[in-house]
Amino acid sequence: MWTFVHIFSCGRSSTSANVDDRAHPLGVEVFRSTRELGAAVRDRRNERELTQAELARRAGVSREWVNALERGKPNVNVTQLMDVLEVLDLALDLTPLTRDTRADEIIDELFGREPDDHS
């Protein structure tokens, strides 16, 4: 299973709702639902002082599409989503939900740490 992760270009987010719930130690935010992703897009748009219509114009989508995205509509076009994120200076990445224990072992070995339970 995969989850969406986005990284703000400025390295921080002013997303107000549930920031601590999505916080990641590397400065990214993890979204487990389209509603959370939509809220982050809305917050970033507001941070940039853009209307839905202006964001839509710049991204080449309709205002209705932006509205549906911000409401967490589950069936959005990925190409259009990428266009909107680019206008907002955001990147989208995918990461596995489960830890790779072998990667943890390699990191422990590289840093000379004693292996411990990473679960």
Roughly what percent helix? 40-55%
> Which of globular, elongated, flat, extended, rod-shaped describes the shape?
elongated
Mean pLDDT: 76
Give a quick account of the main beta sheet: strands, pairing sense, barrel closure.
3 strands, antiparallel
Compute the separation of the termini in Å.
Answer: 17 Å
Instruction: Give the full name of the CATH homologous superfamily.
Output: lambda repressor-like DNA-binding domains
The count of domains is 1
Give the class from helix and strand content and strand pairing: alpha+beta
Number of strands: 3
Approximately how much beta-strand content do the residues carry? 5-15%
CATH class descriptor? Mainly Alpha
Radius of gyration: 17 Å
The tally of helices reads 6
Uncertain segments are 1-26
Widest β-sheet, arrangement of strands: 2-1-3
Provide the CATH topology. 434 Repressor (Amino-terminal Domain)
Query: What is the H/E order?
Result: EHEHHHHEH
Q: What is the second-level CATH architecture?
A: Orthogonal Bundle
Commentary on this structure:
The chain has 119 residues and is α+β, with helices and mostly antiparallel strands. The protein has a single domain (2-110), classed as 434 Repressor (Amino-terminal Domain) (Orthogonal Bundle), CATH 1.10.260. The protein has 6 helices and 3 strands, in the order E-H-E-H-H-H-H-E-H. It has helices at residues 19-22, 34-47, 52-59, 63-70, 78-87, 101-110, and strands at residues 2-8, 29-31, 90-96. It has a 3-stranded antiparallel beta sheet, with helices on one face. Helix 3 (52-59) packs across helix 4 (63-70). The longest helix has 14 residues, at 34-47. The chain is elongated. The two termini are 17 Å apart. Residues 1-26 have low confidence and may be disordered.
